[in-house]
UniProtKB/TrEMBL annotation:
Domain notes: A pair of annexin repeats may form one binding site for calcium and phospholipid.
Organism of derivation: Cyprinus carpio
Compartments, as annotated in UniProt: Secreted, Extracellular space, Extracellular matrix, Basement membrane
Keyword Cell membrane: no
PANTHER family in alphabetical order: ANNEXIN, ANNEXIN A2-RELATED
InterPro entries tied to this protein: Annexin (IPR001464), Annexin_repeat (IPR018502), Annexin_repeat_CS (IPR018252), Annexin_sf (IPR037104), ANX2 (IPR002389)
Taxonomic path: Eukaryota, Metazoa, Chordata, Craniata, Vertebrata
GO cellular component: basement membrane; cytoplasm; nucleus; plasma membrane; vesicle membrane
Keywords: Annexin, Basement membrane, Calcium, Calcium/phospholipid-binding, Extracellular matrix, Phosphoprotein, Repeat, Secreted
Protein name: Annexin
The keyword Calcium is annotated on this UniProt entry: yes
Family matches, as SMART domains: ANX
Amino acid sequence: MFGCGLCLCQINKTLFVLGVDEQTITDVLTKRTYNQRREIAFAYERRAKKDMISALKGALSGSLETVILGLMKSTAQYDASEIKASIKGLGTDEESLIEIVCSRSNAELMEIKRVYKELFKKDLEKDVCGDTSGDFAKLLLALAKRAEPSSVIDYQKIDEDARALFEAGVKRKGTDVKCWISIMSERSVPHLQKVFERYKSYSPYDMQESIRKEVKGDLEMSFLTLVQCFENRQLYFANRLQDAMKSKGAKEKVLTRIMVSRCEVDLKKIRQEFKAHHGKSLYQTIAEHTKGDYQRALLNLCGGDD
């Protein structure tokens, strides 16, 4: 890897001397960590007397611009910005909102809330509740208010919780959504993994099948995302990536969001799950469904073929 001085020289030449060279911008910024990209941006500003983000906006466009500008934010800043974008203006992008709020850990959500307040001078909980309604809003609010990260397994409550989930759903007519929200937002991930295993001794369906039978729409997608992430978060993201690249072309919004938000978190494990469950590497799949500098950026973030 080049040192920051050489990176800065390349970026400087690319943006102001030689004209726009997307390949150089892509290679320099997608092969660095967020902290390294920050150092490059600070050094660029000192030397060029211009803001690098503004220069990148002027030099890039389309999908590549979305990726590169996303990478110039920390993971929490990126997630906070994506949540804000999903509830901004007319209508709500429920799919994006659900993916972020329901897939992030307690620790990640706490940092996202802090950064959201810092960036937008508003409380994330209030903004989310103001843009959603009903049980869907109650679930998102409960998740946003989750306590400090915990790995506690309350062995005395495993059976009680499993039975309560069954009795609140499959066993009765109608669903006691409040009970489901309470258990899934107040228990630790290791505890819930035990609960879902025990649940099978009460219900003829596993937890995911029960959700599909009991609730629909945004609430169904939210509960399914939660349970899938409680069981195997990296597999959830691998499946989302596969779904985004099922047909010809790709759902670039989903693909970009997952690659940018997870590249410094757990992308290597997501790659492993992708290969294990879909019979082809994530690298090869991206190469087949994308093109140009956007493809180059995503392949660099992917980091290698498995």
